[in-house]
Amino acid sequence: MPPLIAAASDPTPWMILPFGIMLLSIAVMPFIHAHWWERHYPKVALGLGAITTVYYIAFLHNPGRMLHVAHEYVSFIALIGSLFVVAGGIHITVKGEARPWTNAVFLFIGAVLANFIGTTGASMLLIRPWIRMNKYRVTTFHVVFFIFIISNVGGCLTPIGDPPLFLGYLKGVPFFWVLEHCWIAWLVCTLALIGMFVIFDLLNFRRPPKELSEQMTASETWRFQGLKNGFLLAVIIGAVFLPSPWRELLMIAAAVASYFLTPPEIHRANHFNFAPIREVAWLFIGIFATMVPALDYLAKHAGQLGLHSPMQFYWFTGILSAFLDNAPTYLTFLAAALGDQGLNLDQPADIRTFIAADSHFLVAISLGAVFFGAASYIGNGPNFMVRNIAAQLGVKMPSFFGYIFKYSLPILLPIFAIIALLFFSPWRIF
C-alpha cells in the first residue's frame, strides 16, 4: 500500500466542506425527508465524492491520490462485504432468553474473538444471535454496547483486530507488540463497558413478570448451522495478509462460494439480504472520497497542532478517528509523531527506534484510533452495518446525533478519560 503521507496534497480548507455536508446528510436527512433520502442517498454520495475527485484531478493535478483512495475503498468493501456474506451463512440458534451475566460473558467472548477474525468478522457473526438471545427484551442499549465492545474496543490486541493496527504491522510494528503493550488498557476499557452494560441489563431484565422471566431463561440451548462457512471465514482472514489484488479476489471468491453453497433455509433464518451492505457501500463511496482533503490537510499541518505528548496524540487521534477513517488517521498521527523525532514512517528501522525510545506514543495512537471508532456510526466499518442489521430485525436504533449524545458522550467519554489518566497523564499508573 503506498504511504498516505507521500501521496498527500495540500488542499484548501474549503474542500473539507463536502465531507461536512456528507456527515450532516447522513445525520439529518433520514429525519428531514426519510423517503427522499432512501431513494437518493447514492446520488448524494456520488455527487459529493465527484466534487473532491474533480478538484484533485483538475486543480491539484494529483489523480494518483484519488486512485489510491479508490483502491482503499475496494479493499474495505471486499473485506466487510465478504465477511457480511459469509457470516450470514452461519446460523446460531438460541432457545430461551439470556440472563444479564450470560450476556456479559457473550460480550467478553466477542471482544476476544474480534482479535482473531477482526471486529467486522465478529460483528457480522454475532449480531444476529445477540439480538435473538435477547429477543423478548432487546432494546437500543443492547445493540449500542455490542457496537462499543465487539465492533470496536475488543479488536485492540492484534493487527487482525482492527485496520489501523494492521497498517502499523505492515509499517514494521511487531505483530505481538500491541498485545504486549495494550492488553491492560483493553481489559480496563472492556470490563468497564461490560460492567456498565450489566447495570442496564439487570434493570431491563427485572421489568418482565417473574413467570415470563423464568420462561425466557428456560432451556438455553445453542445450535450451529452452516459451519462450513467457518472455513471460508478463515480464508478471508488469511487473505488479509496477501498482496493486492489477490487479497480482494480471494475475499470475493470466498463470499461467492458461501452465498451459493449456503442452504436457503439458513439465509431465511438469518433474514439475510444485501440491503445493509448495499447502504454501507454507497455511503462509504462518499465518505472515502470527501474525507481525503481533511486527511491531507491534517497530514500537511499536523506539526502546527503542537502535539508533543502521548496524552495529546491519544485525544487528537481519537477524536478524528470517530469521524474520519481510523486507519489513515492512525498513519497520519504516527507519521507526525515520528517526524517530531526526525524519523520516517516508511523506514522499519525508524519504527523500531521510535518504539524503543518511548512506547507510550504508539500506545496512545493505537488506543485512540481503535477505541474512539465506537464514538459514531461512521467511526468504524462494522458500526453502520450492525446498526442496519439491527434496524432490519426490528430494533429501534438512535439517529446519528442520538447515538453520539445519548450514548457515546455520556458512556464512552468518561471511560476514555479514565484511560487517559491511567496511561498518559503525569500521574499515570501504567
Main sheet: strands, sense, barrel: 2 strands, antiparallel
Shape: globular
- The portion of residues forming beta strands comes to under 5%
The helicity comes to over 70%
* Sequence of strands across the biggest β-sheet: 1-2
Question: Can you give a write-up of this model?
Answer:
By secondary structure, this protein is mainly α. The protein has one domain (4-424). It is 72% helix and 2% strand. The protein has helices at 4-7, 17-32, 34-59, 63-87, 100-133, 140-149, 163-171, 177-205, 210-216, 228-239, 246-261, 264-269, 275-301, 310-321, 326-340, 348-357, 359-371, 381-392, 400-424; strands at 91-94, 222-225. Strands 1-2 form a two-stranded antiparallel ribbon. The longest helix has 34 residues, at 100-133. Mean pLDDT is 88; it is low at 1-6.
